[in-house]
Amino acid sequence: MKISRTFRVVCSTALILSLFAIAYQPRIGICADDEAWYVHDVIEPSVDRVRWFEEGTISVAPIWIAEGSWYGASMRQSLVTENDIFVSTYELVDWSLLRPQVEDLYGTGFDSFNDFANTLQEDPSLWLSSSWEIDSSWYGVASETTKTKTLYDLASDQAELWTWFHITHVPEYFASEGKLESWLTGFDLTPISIGSLARWEFYEDWSGTGIKYELHFEAPSNVLSQRGGNYTCKLGVSSSYQGYTFKIQQTIDVKMPTNSEVKETSPNNMTIYNGDTATFVIARGDTYPVAYTVVSGPVAKSFGQAFVESASVWMVTPVGWAAIGSLLVLAITAFRGRTILKRNNTYRRLYKSMVTLFDLYSDDLPRFHEEIDIVSKSIFKSIVEDRITDDQFERLLRRRDDLLKRADKLPTNDHEP
């Protein structure tokens, strides 16, 4: 019998995972050695709450599908009220292969699929517990609001199973067994009130071609603090991820308050930022940090804004002539600002290109070295032409050397689930 389908604990990932191969047993499937999870997070923190979106995919079937008992499955969840999550599930199974497991689970024989379907209709709780890890009693799933439907094709021996039910003990469902943390990939959710969700939407599909999921939630939190016009967002990393590497390509977009722009990030060697958004890029084999931190502050005034403000003073007050000096300074600042922006764009492009090359060709060392050499030439050309700063040049070379070392050690560097 397959156990819970949450992919994060599947192979190398959590939110979407576990203390891999140490303290947490994989919940579903096994990832092929040459496959990696692709995970994307978009996080919008405010002073008292957070909105979060995460999606993930992997192009390898879970083991319970690869073995043939299931052809596919899906789950949909939606928060109706604070104490009500509506859930629907679907499964397409091979009854001839699944039947021995089902009889083992129920401790009785079934002469036909219809016998099992009748048993499922009378009491679906055992099936929900075994197949979906839904504890009906603990999560408040009432039999009178649970519906099942089945279809069976005798010729192909395929059966379809649908269930619809309500989870009415929402804090127990999310908080008591860390279900939300088992979905979200690598994050410590301690500062988030996951028992008081204002929004929850979750979709996950399993098939012979792989797994994909998507979730949205909104909840009270204190991940963002404010001091004056400055904001600091700190997102802790789960202890089961800190210092480890996994077969994951993860992008984390942190969108700070719209009236601010990003000033600092940490760790800055895996970050690019523009305006109010900071993006953390974790390539396969990168070590997870202790936390992600973003600091933003007031948006710098454009040259046009400063000119209008200065001009108004200049036109109506005797001391306005002193603004001429300020305008000259601002003109120089604006020119420097454009130069800095161009340098940052060049730096981001070179940084992203190396991460992408690592993901595409790390298993083909000659090709990877060939592509990296081309990027290296671009890096040296950019510093000569003053299109990147000395600091950016050094950070790019460190990143290049790190990726080269990681590619050389990749067969033994990934942390296996």
Keywords:
417 residues; alpha+beta; eleven-stranded mixed sheet; four-stranded antiparallel sheet; 15 strands; 29% strand; disordered N terminus; disordered C terminus
Map the helices and strands.
Elements: E1 37-45, E2 49-58, H1 63-66, E3 70-81, E4 84-94, H2 95-106, H3 113-122, H4 125-132, H5 136-139, E5 147-153, E6 158-167, H6 170-176, H7 179-183, E7 199-207, E8 210-220, E9 224-227, E10 230-236, E11 248-255, E12 260-266, E13 271-274, E14 277-282, E15 291-298, H8 303-316, H9 323-361, H10 365-384, H11 390-413
Parallel strand pairs: 1-11
Antiparallel strand pairs: 1-2, 2-8, 3-4, 3-7, 4-6, 5-6, 7-8, 9-10, 10-15, 11-14, 12-15, 13-14
Fraction in beta strands: 25-35%
Question: In whole angstroms, how far apart are the ends?
Answer: 20 Å
Large-scale geometry: flat
Question: Which whole number gives the mean pLDDT?
Answer: 82
Share in helix? 25-40%
Using the CA coordinates, give the radius of gyration.
Answer: 27 Å
Question: What do these coordinates show?
Answer:
With 417 residues, the protein is α+β, with helices and mostly antiparallel strands. The chain has a domain of 114 residues. The protein is built from eleven helices and 15 strands. It has an eleven-stranded mixed β-sheet with strand order 5-6-4-3-7-8-2-1-11-14-13, with helices on both faces. A four-stranded antiparallel β-sheet has the order 9-10-15-12, with no helix packed on it. A hairpin with a 2-residue loop joins strand 7 and strand 8. Helix 8 packs antiparallel against helix 9. The protein is flat. The relative contact order is 0.13. The N terminus and C terminus are likely disordered.
